[in-house]
Amino acid sequence: MSNRVKYLILGAGPSGLTLAEQLKRNNENDFLVLEKETVPGGLCRSEWVDDGPLDIGGGHILDVRRPKVNELIFEYMPENEWNLFDRDSSIHFRDGYVGHPFESNIWQMDIEDQVEFLESIAEAGCIKNTPMPEKFVEWIHWKLGDKVANEYMIPYNQKMFGDNLDELGTYWLEKLPDVSFRDTLRSCLERKPYGKQPGHASFYYPKTAGYGEVFERIGKALGDKLILGTQVISMELMEGDLKKVKCSDDNEYLAEKVVTTIPWKSYELIGFDEKIVGSIENLKSTAVDIEYFSENMDTSAHWIYEPNPEVSYHRILVRHNFALGSKGHWTETRSERVALKKREGSYHYMNEYAYPLNTIGKPELMKRLLSYMKGLGIIGLGRWGEHNHYNSDVVMELAMNLAHRLINER
User: Structure pTM?
Assistant: First the structure.
């Protein structure tokens, strides 16, 4: 027997939960949310490990820059349940540490190293007004100079995204912190960072829980509109513009509109244009392993980037510096690099889908896919529905905007 709804939302991560919450808030109750895990939150889920929270999706925090999103979150988890931090992130470089972003903090190095990096940046193609390259690796050299590229950006990105960086496009790199040569030079002269700061310059983290707590609360408020522990197996086009979604528990759902926030490759599409469906195989992503260690670290940083290719992980989340009252830290390691390390932590979790990759041709692929699906009443939303490396606050804002459009269409 099939259950019929107006809106079927696939996935109870931040985007799916926010969309459902907004529909319910506006008296639209003809919807369901399907989630394969037994706890809502998606990549923002938290576990309780060694007397403290651990975010199984890596590092997840609440940026302060989207007031609409913060206002919604504080309805479920009031602001007095959060600590507010000014971002402290660093890069493990050679035998010491440099603040992030790298170009703003070269001043923290020895004078001879500062001079070498400044000379290299001054020779970068963007400084000399040479044409912007189309390949990822060449773009990094063009933008930041050979030394920053070779000693930090290239090895770090290889660790995070894969050895063949030229599979990636350059269309997304403008989102990197914008630090000009003038900013870098001035920072070295005045011994303080200049240039545009990266995201999460200020952020919230819960006082006594993990980041996933707020999404558990939103999920609880949805009541029986949220169905946990059921994995989407397939979606099939039916007569009358209906879509049939089959799940692992043998339940089937008929929907007028489907909003998918889960990876397109994670379920079968039946009755759709074969060329469109085939193109989905070109969407690439990485899996990331989270490993917890009980030792405290001698640092004030909230997280640390690790570009050294000899070290398996690419980032450390220093839990005791943001989940106050907790101890220890955890690492993030791309799945292909897990074999390079000994399993020494007391807890680990592998995220099959962690980061969408910004490969060459992806924007055009996604434009065709989303346009085609929208014409059939299927909407892609969030990190996986849009296959874009969005943070949680971004996908929540996107979900709020989508809810507004859907409600106005009624």
Answer: 0.95
